[in-house]
Design goal:
mainly alpha
């Protein structure tokens, strides 16, 4: 039962991550960082204009970083809340002994399996240039 619930929550987390635009936002963030470093290292641009452009790039970087962080926060909440609710709801269940047992003692394992699947998929997509895996079959 524990494994089944953990697997369902893990699959839900992976599916949600695949539908979030994390990769697209990460690519835009990398482009902005590359542009800002090119402006800073350029000798053709005056320091006054560098200050103006870097402020604009800093605002864009901050906005994209907040968007990416909010996606991961939402994913963490979506992953953790069902496990917490089920664990709390089923915590009064008694085994053969007289002590209480938690229905989901693998709370950490479920969140780690979801995180591991997300990280593996993200690294695979980055290696493929952001393109999802296509089955050749």
């Amino acid at each position: 039962m524990n494994f089944l619930l953990s697997a369902i929550v893990g699959m839900l987390a992976v599916e949600l991550f695949l539908r979030m635009p994390v990769i697209a936002h990460s690519k835009m963030l990398l482009k902005i960082v590359a542009k800002s470093s090119a402006v800073v290292t350029s000798s053709r641009i005056s320091d006054h204009w560098k200050e103006q452009v870097v402020k604009a790039y800093a605002g864009q970087i901050a906005l994209l970083t907040l968007k990416i962080a909010s996606m991961f926060l939402a994913l963490g909440v979506i992953l953790y809340v069902p496990i917490y609710v089920l664990d709390s709801a089923l915590a009064d269940r008694r085994c053969f002994r007289s002590e209480k047992v938690h229905a989901l003692p693998w709370r950490g394992a479920a969140s780690e399996s979801g995180r591991g699947a997300i990280v593996n998929d993200a690294s695979d997509r980055l290696e493929r240039g952001g393109r999802p895996y296509k089955d050749r079959g």
